[in-house]
Description:
Pfam families: MerR_1, TipAS. By secondary structure, this protein is an all-alpha fold. The protein has three domains: 5-69, Orthogonal Bundle (Multidrug-efflux Transporter Regulator, Chain: A, Domain 2), CATH 1.10.1660.10; 76-114, no CATH class; 128-334, no CATH class. Helix content is 70%, strand content 1%. Helix 9 (149-165) runs antiparallel to helix 10 (173-190). It is flat and about 95 Å long.
Amino acid sequence: MELTVGELAKRSGLTVRTLHHYDAIGLLVPSLRSAAGYRLYDRANIERLHRIQALRQLGLPLADIGTALSGPQAPLAEVIDRQIAQLDHEIANASRLRSQLGRLRAQLDTGQAPDLADWLETLQTMSLYEKYFSPEELKTLPLHTDPDVLPQWSALVTAVQSAMDRGATVDDADVHLLALRWMAMLERGTGNNPAFLLRLHAINEQEPQMRELSRISKALERFVEQAVISARLAIFARYLDEDEMQRVRANYGHQMYDWPALIVELRKVMAENRPADDPHVQVLAQRWMTLFRAYAGDDPSTHERIREAYAKEPDLRRGSAVDETLIAYLREAWTHQPLQ
């Protein structure tokens, strides 16, 4: 079967303009010409169009599709199998969303307040996170993929709110445990990805409905932040003397949200395999030291004791995405700086 551009447009659901664009950029060039000089699409062209549209559904831009189709091709049956699997996934998600909405509607019809776990899961299944995460990122975000995470978050929020309601302070031992559990849940919920942590923070700041549904009010968020600081100060106190602790208490936590942004940048240059003496890496390493000294001071012996605490106390790093590989990278970068 040979089709003109108009016939192919009509039967494929695409526009003539789209097909002309594919032709112009060399993505889908008609193989034949009629006796009257019209360009015609043959069976091979139609198979290639199927591959193009399949790759577009997977989110690839046209430039990348052209590159993908320039090499060895998977059998068409395999391409179709992938499409079927993707559709099955979408159908399952749609079915889950329909069931969740049905439960919410039934609860509302009986005058009940919707169950928070169901409500948050429904919100998640809808498109709120898609404003902040790409489809590929959502596949690696446990908050989106792990069905146990949201109910556990809900239980932890309830526990923190109960502590606040009974007048507990951020320095109480049981509140410290809640704060450290909070950081462990952040680590789990974000996959220990600092970029995801920053975006989740942005969702809370920019999407009022998220605060309302999650019950993480600004007051509760501030309470947890202060409790985390207090819990970690209690850990530092095992390693530092009182003079050192006075400075740390006065300054630790002031740049709480500067650290994740810096760690994101460091993770990026590490992934790019930039050498430790790269000028940009040097700037990042110096920024790290500036943040560190802001609460640790300039005494090398204090620095050593704080580093010992970080090495021996997992709760000091929990949720930060700081591991030995990153620390080793920084140490190498610091060897290229004249003064430390």
